[in-house]
Amino acid sequence: MARLPVGIRFIVSFSRDQWYRAFIFILTFLLYASFHLSRKPISIVKGELHRYCAAVNEGEVEFNSQNQKAGDVPPHQRPDNETDCGWAPFDRDNYQQLLGALDYSFLCAYAIGMYLSGIIGERLPIRYYLTFGMLASGAFTALFGLGYFYNIHSFGFYVVTQIVNGLVQTTGWPSVVTCLSNWFGKGRRGLIMGVWNSHTSVGNILGSLIAGYWVSTCWGLSFVVPGAIVAAMGIVCFLFLIEHPRDIACSSTLTAHSKGYENGMHRLRLQKHVLMEKNKPLDPEMQCLLLSDGKHSAHQNHTIVLPADAGSGVAAISFTGALKIPGVIEFSLCLLFAKLVSYTFLFWLPLYITNVAMLLLSGALVSGPYALITTAVSADLGTHKSLKGNSHALATVTAIIDGTGSVGAALGPLLAGLLSPSGWNNVFYMLMFADACALLFLIRLIHKELSCPRSAMGNQVPFKEQ
After folding, report:
1. Mean local confidence (pLDDT), 311-337
2. Which of 132, 243, 237, 113 lies closest to 178 in space, CA to CA?
3. Residue 300 phi, psi (nearest 5)
4. CB 114 within 8 Å of CB 402
5. 5-13 long-range contacts, Cβ below 8 Å, gap at least 24?
6. Buried b vs exposed e over 90-126: b needs ≥16 C-beta within 10 Å?
7. What is the mean pLDDT of residues 11-34?
8. What is the secondary structure of 16-50 as a DSSP string?
């Protein structure tokens, strides 16, 4: 018998589950990269929406007129829907305020919508919810570009388009983080989500390349093409996304009787589990994370109160219930200040620092922590032990943390713009204060982590199996 080719041996060396995990990793990576791809055109097209009128001087006008008289190729004629200074209403003297309003309209809508998105996403199938969000995002991204083709010069049109686009784009992050967390356990989330989080850079790079290709000739296509890509990826999501490993592990040949028998057995196991939990002492990790001080008993019940069917993984957690999960509020406020610093650096630091090594160092130190909070930390909190197996809290927790961080993303560049006229020193003082606040909100959690082995093991009572 001939030996199998190297490629085939490599393929069969992985199990079925490993191939599915790799597929979900790549698919969710591409799905959210397309979201970032659609956000980039606005920053590329800003220079085309407002151009300097002094670009055409008298010598060029005279040269072009002589060529036209001599029967040569006529000079380039601007379209009727385009003025010499850009695209109305962004051709006015207050163009900086108008362009800034487009950014803040999107960021504020994204921050507000994120709180609602997690709650809604917990109650709908991820695949349907994400598909709707991508189709809607593609439509409103393309709608902004259609303003070029239909000669629309209403500032309100572009602002409303940005607001709605910011709202529908909030469907993406909680959905993809929840799906990815369902497929990968806690032990590998840090490394896997760290690599997976590079979709942000990939999407931004692709968005810049696509938008830049048409920006000087037909800037409307800089929005229409990315919008079409996002919508197409939404169709791919609908056709191929698998929300949870159990969706492919369950057999479709089970009879109704067997299903009813399994459901009955599940209820019996659940009741037995509840009785055992009453007599079971709190484990060290639960005790360290849930006790706010050392005065409470280790046997006290600190679990989050959930609906009656939460044990079956069907009920979704409420907004206040998600806030009660230990660490959610602290990490949310920490991300607010971390993202404030990160986005301030993103918009303003290239204007102040031109040493490439300093930019790389600043980006690594600032973006790394907030990227970790929005991925692995959010996933761990969304599957916290205090939830007692309720899998419908991950999207809400992720949305709360990222939504709070988005508030900081909107405030950072705004505060920098207000403080910069008084001197760049004040801007950096503001950033140092924000970093100190981010650290401050983690001190209590750090103290608990450090004191966990000593206090928990000292209060632990050995558990005897019945």
Report:
1. 75
2. 243
3. -70, 145
4. yes
5. none
6. bbeeebeebbeebbbbbbbbbbbbbbebbbbbbeeeb
7. 92
8. HHHHHHHHHHHHHHHHHHHHHHHHSHHHHHHHHHB
The number of angstroms, rounded, from the C-alpha of 384 to the middle of its chain's C-alpha atoms is 20
pLDDT digits (tens, 9 = 90+) for 26-45: 999 999 999 999 998 998 89
Mean pLDDT confidence for 104-108:
90
Q: How far apart are CA 53 and CA 134, in angstroms?
A: 38
Model pLDDT, residue 184: 83
Please give the average per-residue pLDDT across 347-368, as a whole number.
69
Structure tokens at 268: 């019996």
Other beta carbons less than 10 A from residue 391's beta carbon: 21
What is the pTM (predicted TM-score) of this model?
Answer: 0.71
Count the alpha carbons within 13 Å of 211 in the hemisphere toward its beta carbon: 26
Helices and strands (DSSP H and E) totals, the chain: 20, 0
pLDDT tens-place string over residues 423-454: 888 888 998 999 899 888 878 777 777 776 55
Residue where the block lists tokens 């907030």: 370
Give me the CATH topology for the region 16-61+79-246: Growth Hormone; Chain: A; (1.20.1250)
Query: What b/e string do you get for 406-430 counting C-beta neighbours within 10 Å, with b at 16 or more?
Result: bbbbbbbbbbbeebeeeeeeebeeb
| Residue boundaries of the structural domains of the chain | 16-61+79-246, 281-293+302-458
Cite the DSSP H helix spans in 184-220: 189-196, 199-214
- What's the mean pLDDT when you consider all of the chain? 75
